[in-house]
Amino acid sequence: MSVAILKLNPQRQETWRYNGHILLQEPTVRVIEARFNRADLPFHGITFRQNDRFVEIYYSDRWYNIFEIHDRDSDALKGWYCNICCPAEFSQEAIAFVDLALDLLVYPDGRQLVLDEDEFAALALAPDIQARARHALAELQTLFQQAGPGQPPDPAHAIRPVTL
């Protein structure tokens, strides 16, 4: 089943839209497969190429999502891109999430790079939202460290609820 993915800014304005195919649907989780729909983009030592395959996990009870990135030609793992965001909103037609600017890039060798901390600070979010975002980043960093190089977080994590 096809679904639209809507990335929203903190004012809930749409900043990016694309379509994906639902692979797994649970009450608080959606896993989709999508193709990168922009021109090739060099990004911190990785090149996102048009039509790269993304396997994306969205949660309605967590403050992040996880994108596993695969090369369009070889399907080789390029890494993981994680958005710190408000919990996703699911409908029959769409998955929407409010992006909070803070991101985590995880390379196949296990290296981690926190991105856009300056943009996150400039958002002037309420203190409780800032705290949830920082907690989400720390949780993701720990999950990837525990998984080890070249491994995604524990697959059971995708459908196991977490209490903040």
Layout of secondary structure:
Layout: E1 2-8, E2 14-26, E3 29-35, E4 41-43, E5 46-48, E6 53-59, E7 64-70, E8 77-85, E9 89-90, E10 94-106, E11 112-115, H1 117-122, H2 127-147
Parallel strand pairs: 1-10
Antiparallel strand pairs: 1-2, 2-3, 3-6, 4-5, 6-7, 7-8, 8-10, 9-10, 10-11
Task: Name the features.
single chain, alpha+beta, FomD barrel-like fold, seven-stranded mixed barrel, two-stranded antiparallel ribbon, 2 helices
Task: Give me a quick take on this structure.
By secondary structure, this protein is an alpha+beta fold.
Describe the fold and architecture:
It contains 2 helices and 11 strands; from the N terminus they run βββββββββββαα. The termini are far apart. A 7-stranded mixed beta barrel has the order 1-2-3-6-7-8-10. Strands 4-5 form a two-stranded antiparallel ribbon. Helix content is 16%, strand content 46%. It is of the alpha+beta class and 164 residues long. It has one domain: FomD-like (FomD barrel-like fold, Beta Barrel). The protein has helices at residues 117-122, 127-147; strands at residues 2-8, 14-26, 29-35, 41-43, 46-48, 53-59, 64-70, 77-85, 89-90, 94-106, 112-115. The model is unreliable at 159-164 (pLDDT under 50).
